[in-house]
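Hey team,

Sharing the Amidohydrolase family protein run so nobody has to redo it. Sequence (527 residues) first:
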Amino acid sequence: MSDRLTVLTSKSVFTGTGDLPFEGFVAVRGNRIEAVGTKCEVASYLTQADEVVDLGDRTVMPGLIDVHTFYTGWALRTLGSDLSGIADAKEAVSLLRAWKEDHPDCAAAFGHNLPETLASDAENANTAAVFDDCFGDIPVVCFTPGAGTCVLNAAASARYGFTPQACYAEKIWRMMSDFLALPEVRAGYSDYMSMLNERGVTAIKEMAFDDYYGFADEMARREESGELTVRVSMMSQPVGAGANLAYAREARERFRGPFVRFSGFNRMTDRGVWAGLAEMIDPYEDTADAGAAGKTVVEEPEWDLIENELRAIDADGFRYSLHCQGDGAVRRTVALYASLPRDEHGRMLRRHAITDLENSDPTDLVEFGKLGGICEVYPQILTLDRREDCLSMMRRQIGETRLLHSWNRRGMEDSGCTVCCGTDLPLLIPSLGESIYSACGGFFADGLPVNEVNTLTLVELLRAWTAGGAYDLMREDELGTLEVGKLADICVLDRDVFDLDYRDARDLAVDMTMSDGQIVFDRNKEA
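Structure output:
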């Protein structure tokens, strides 16, 4: 490790240990923070420095930590042949054949950027029929831009078992062993890390389905070769089978390095309140969608399975993150966590978490806080929708009163829960500016607010993106704040974030990112 000393000076240093920034410096030697101090303490470090970077009034802060990401989903956006701009299915066939010839060992032919017109409800079957005629028993899967929908032929349907409208990560697990083995998908992890670094992200909690279908070997190779610029905490999400504790034990022992760790399991419970698929405490409104009205849940989560898994996972020393969107699912999960062994202070022995919490009863947040619970929230989520497009659906499902309990980050913070930030990437791409706009301002995409009493302060959000994430990754002794001896994972914003109106936050950008003491993104040099 280099002994080189780099000194970053700024009028806005936010260490995460206090509430306000200060004019000062951060000194980095090798991959560690050697000193942090005020302007009047910097002189001796300037004389020793190999490099001094004067950042003016740009905020220097700890690197961001995204606690809910899916490389498996991100990879679908560029999987296989690029079909953008084609006019019809026959043109797609020509490109897919060429790709398959270049990949003779792959069981299927893949494509991305298939025009939406060829995957529409009216044309999907026709496009699939062309693929059937031209490829026979070779599976063909082509995703539309963003990989929200797809076209697949009969051979692909038989091999992989998902549908054109339900092709999200949890559904495509049978396909993972085929596409995660592709050289370009493995190489694409470099672009994935670059994208994260450009947004100030230096650590993630990655959802690695089942045993990661061979991709754990790629993570091991990259760490050994020193190629990683993002620290990765892998979580196994059981989809093909139940929680595989034997794999988890092996992975925990295998991944103990500075960049790759294995920490536990992740599982879905219910789905969105807006769609009437969440489990609620009280029944859905009479005006709710057909099938939901008068019920508390339409599709009952596998609570017996979840409880049995949780107890085994907890006993083996792993943590569990349960993805809950309705207040009923949150309540059930808090009760399950409360039934586990606890320490002398009544807190859970393991760092179990709840992800999303689209709607939650405040009393359950209080109980979760007492347990030492972690809330993994999506701070940018409101930016996906216009206000009334979202709220009109929510009101129809649960009414105005319960709507007040939606996106209640204020309640989580005030209840003593550890709040941290995820994006569900690729659903959202990490953006601190979008997070401030949405989670501090409470704004939807059209600039109209909702439940402003439920928002976080700027400092609380910055800590959630940093110290909260470090705690969730069980690495708070190394990451999450700018303190002497901690790893030098640092983010530099393009302005003083403390002099920013929430309404103007969306275009906030990252100017520089340091990972393990190395500058891995510099906007000025990129330009």
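The first helix runs from residue 43 to 48.

Ping me if you want the raw files.
A.
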